[in-house]
Amino acid sequence: MGRMRNLLIPGVDKTLLVRDAVKTMPDLTRRRFIAGGASLGALTLLTGCDVTDPFSAEEMLKRVSKFNDGVQSLIFNPNAMAPTFPESAITKPFPFNAYYDLDDAPTVDGKTWKLEVRGLVENKKPWTLEELYALPQVKQVTRHICVEGWSAIGSWTGTPLRDFLKIIGADTRAKYVWFQCADKDGYNSPLDMQTALHAQTQMTFNFADEILPRAYGFPMKIRVPTKLGFKNPKYVMSMEVTNDYKGGFWEDQGYNSFSGS
Amino acid sequence: MSAVTVSDEQATSTKARVIQPAWVRALHWTNAFAMVLMIMSGWQIYNASPLFGFTFSKSITLGGWLGGALLWHFAAMWLLMVNGLIYLAVGLATGRFRKKLLPISPGGVISDTKAALTGNLSHADLSKYNQVQKLLYAGVIILGILIVLSGLAIWKPVQLQYLTALFGGYDAARYVHFFCMAGIVAFMVVHVALALLVPKSLRAMIIGR
Predict the structure, then answer these.
(1) Which residues of chain B make contact with A83, given a CB cutoff of 8 A?
(2) Rounded to an integer, what distance in angstroms lies between the CA atom of residue B118 and that of residue B116?
(3) Would the CA dihedral through B25, B30, B34, B40 be positive or negative?
(4) Closest CA of chain B from A166, distance in Å
(5) Could you say which of A21, A144, A221, B203 would form a disulfide bridge with A204 (CB–CB 3.0 to 4.6 Å)?
(6) Among all residues of chain A, which has the CA nearest to that of B79?
(7) pLDDT of residue A28
């Protein structure tokens, strides 16, 4: 706990961050997030309407969120780069942020870890860390923006995802690259193909010129500076190129799926 | 037939009695509804990463948790924006803004504030705004424009990065967004209190007369 507190950024309410982490613990009531927050939900109970009723507030909000996915996809400019910053702007210390304490962060053995590649790709050979480190790398100093509102500037180095997708012969006409991670409770997240092919979307192996530490996602993180933080999976175990929307850890709980910046 | 004919005089007086036309009333209440949804869900979003040393009581927020609040916020924003754009377009096109809200002079605002505080402000003609009303209504329209623009700057700091830069960057835009909310809430408190003090103004916004 003490170690985690030291890693938090100034200006961010520490108790609140902890509360956010606690909030993510299994809780049946949270699945009914809208019903709990609005009297419209209570009305549904009173009238005995099915919760799948297309006119319920929850259903209406889900539809608007899907509509917002479409709007964001439309206004996404593949040539618009996320602003970059000088090294002096890097937030120190960079916050550790997850739905669990740092103590519960996955410990991945870099010697035995292999990145699994699945789905619509020509070469499904798994990749060792050594093989991945040998690929050309690019550094970016960009702003990480959390869905909660706070932001922090960090330095990430790694291989552009689009270069890797080319190497493995991925069908880039597919809709998503779906990542699965080692976090407890099985973190996963879908990334739309146009964002996967953005020049700044990166398979990250280094943070601040050092091997990616456990706190930030060792052995590999996907850095997506055109998306909110939760769309930047850490501790990545596998990627799947797919046309199916397979959902995600936070996406399934109601965060907007596109969540572009 | 003469029993149902209406004299010119009667027609004019009926027409003159309409203080708030139907389009103003419809847009006003739609805006009020959207604003309340935006503010209540916005408070819940604020609570996830407070800018100041306080949070909003959960009893006055909407959404239940951050994810739910964001769904409300990004749904109600369409209602707020579309309604607001129609209001601005019609207000400018019909000359309503110019006729109702201008001119505003510092001297006029001061003397009308004095009159209001001493209970000497006339409410005889509700179709004509006094200087304090003009200032507050013009001010809240500007806040409404700023809160939407700063909100877009926070939502899309990459795609709309020039807008975000205009507000002084992502973090500064969050503060602008917050203070616009605070200004609008302060306006609403005064606005609702005065509408209740002068009930015929509230009636005019409901039935037009």
Answers:
(1) 157-158, 161
(2) 5
(3) positive
(4) 25
(5) A221
(6) A64
(7) 44
